[in-house]
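Record type: monomer structure entry
Structure origin: computed from sequence
Chain ID: A
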Amino acid sequence: MKNTDSVPLPQQTPEKANKPTHDHEHNHSKAPEESLLKIYWRLWLSLAILMGFLLLTFVLSYELSQSVEIGLMAAAYLLAGYPTLERAFRSIKRGDFFNEFTLMSIATLGAFYIGEYSEGVAVMVFYEIGELFQSLAVNRSKRSIKALLDIRPDSVTVVRNGNHQVIHPSDVAVGETIMVKAGEKIALDGALLTEKATFNTSALTGEFRPATKRAGDAVLAGMINLETVIKMQVSTAFKDSKLSRILSMVQDATARKAPTQLFISRFAKVYTPIVFFLALSVILLPFFFVDTYQFREWLYRGMVFLVIACPCALTVSIPLGYFGGIGLASRHGILVKGANFLDVMTELTTVVSDKTGTLTKGVFKVQEIKTSLDEQEFIDTVAALEKSSTHPIAKAIVEYAHEKTQTHNVERVEEIAGQGLKGIVAGKTVLCGNLKLLQKFNITYPTELERIVDTIVAVGIDNQYVGYLTIADEVKEDALKTVADLKKLGIETIMLSGDKAAVVQKIANQLHISTAYGDLFPEDKVQKVQELKNAGKRIAFVGDGVNDAPVVALADAGIAMGGLGSDATIETADIVIQNDQPSRIVTAIKIGKLTKQVVWQNIILAMGVKIAVMALGAGGVANLWEAVFADVGVALLAILNAYRIQSKTLS
C-alpha cells in the first residue's frame, strides 16, 4: 500500500521495494473524511448520473435515445473511471499488463463494446467507491496506531536564567531544567528534581495506575504529571527520547510484512495473469464446443469473470488486519516491531526468560553485610564503585548506602559481563560481583559463600577478599500466572540467568518452572537458546539487561521489558513490553492468534465468494451487476472483519 500520506513512514525497506503487482497508488487518503464530497465530486457526479439514468429507465420506464444514453454513460464512465484508466495506461507503458487496473479497464470497456453501457459504468463507479473505502480504512488504521502513542506536546516551559520560556521541545538542550504543570504531558526524558510527584504512565505502559516518582528518578516523555508543578532535568534530546523511539518503532512496524502478506503479494502476481487468461478462455474456447456460440454472450461472461476476479479484497484487508493487531498490542502496552512477529508469536513452543527484572521485580534490598573491614568503610567503597552501574543490584547497594556514604574518587571502571565491576576506588583496585569474578582474578574466599542461597555480591580489594553483601529480590505478582497460562497454551517456560544456580532454582520452584539454569555468562545463554533452536523449537526470549541483547537478537521473537530494560535490549528486541509485566507475553500471543485468525477468515471469505461468482459468471448465471456488488461487498466485509481486531477486548 502506498496510501501513507497521513502517517509519515520511513524509507522503503528492500522488502517493501519489491512491491506486488497490486499497487494501490491512489490519492484517496490525502483527503480527510469530512471533505470527501468536495474532493471526489467527479465520482459522486458519476454516481448521480448513473442513478438518475436507472431511475428514468427502470423505475419511470422513460426511454432515452441511444445517442443520449451513450453520451450520458460515456460521461459518467470517464468521470468515475479516469483514475483507473490512467493507472492502467501507465502500468501497461512500463510493461506491467496484469494488474487490477487493467482487469477493470478491459472488463468495463468490453461492457461498452457489447452495448451494456450502464453496467460498465456501474462496475467502474462501485469499484472506485470500494477502492475509496479500502484506502480510507487502511489510513484510518495507520492513524489509529500512531495516535495511540503520538502524544508528544509541541511546547515546553524551560527555566533559563531564572526566567520561564515556552519553546518547542526540540530546542531544549540536554542538562536544562524544564517545568511541567499539573495535567501537562512531559515532552522530554529526564530526572525528577522535585522531591515527589505522581504520573499517569498509560501512554507508555498501557497501565492506568498512577506511578509515584521521587527526586532523582527517571521520568519519560509521554507521562502526564498528575498533582503539582514539578521540575526536571532533561537527560535526552527530543528526537532521542524513549517515546520518540517508540513512535519510530511503531511506524516502522507497518513496513515489515508477515509471511501471510508476502504470500498474498506473490500470489497476486501469479493469480492476476491466470484469471486474465481464464477469462480469455471463457470467451474463446466455447467457439469450439458450443453449437450456438455467440461472441457477445461469451464476451459478457468473460467480463463478469474479470470483474469478480479483482484481488482487492485480499491485498487490502490482509495488511489492514495486521495493522489492527499492531494497534491492539500498542493499546496493551506491547510494541510489536513488525507484522511478521505477530505471526511468530502464534508458532512459539518455548518461552525462554531471564530472571532479574523479567520474572522478578529487579528491586533489590540489601539483606546482610559481612566484612573484615569497618562496615562503614566497606559500604562506602562498594557503593562508590556500584554508582557506575545501572544494574538493579548496583542500585540497591547505592540506595542502601545513600544516607551515610562518603565521596570517593573512582577511576577506570570496567563492567565484566555476567560477573560484576572492576575499578579504582580511592587508589585501590576494587572488585564487586559474583564469585566467578573473584575466581577470574584468582582471589580466594571462604567456601561457605558458595552455599548461600540469596544473591551475593562478593568484594575484593587489592587482590584480597574483604567481605560480601546479600541481596534479595521479589517475584513479580503476575509471574506465576504467566507460567501457568503459557503451559495451558502448550508453551514451555525455561529460565536462564547469570545469577547463582541456587537462587535461580529457588525462583524456578516458586514459579513451577521445571527447567532453569544459573551461573550463565551471556555467551552461555546464547548457546542454550541455540541448542533449543537446533532441536526444532520456536523460541521467544524475554530479557531486560544489556547482556541479554545478543540472545534477544538470536531468538525467533526477542522480547524486551521496556520499563526497566536497557536501551540496547529494547533496540534489539522484536517486541517491547512497556509495563514490564510478564503476563503481557501471553497477551501478545493471544493478539497474534486473533490477528492470524481474522486474516485467514478474510482469505477464505474472499476466495470462496470469488470462486463461486466466477463459476456463476462463466456459466452465464451471474451478471456484471452481481459481480461488482460481490467484489465490493466481499472487500467491505473483509475490512469490517479486520476492524474487529482493533476493538477487541482481551481477557
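Annotation 1: The mean pLDDT is 79.
Annotation 2: The CA atoms of residues 374 and 576 lie 44 Å apart.
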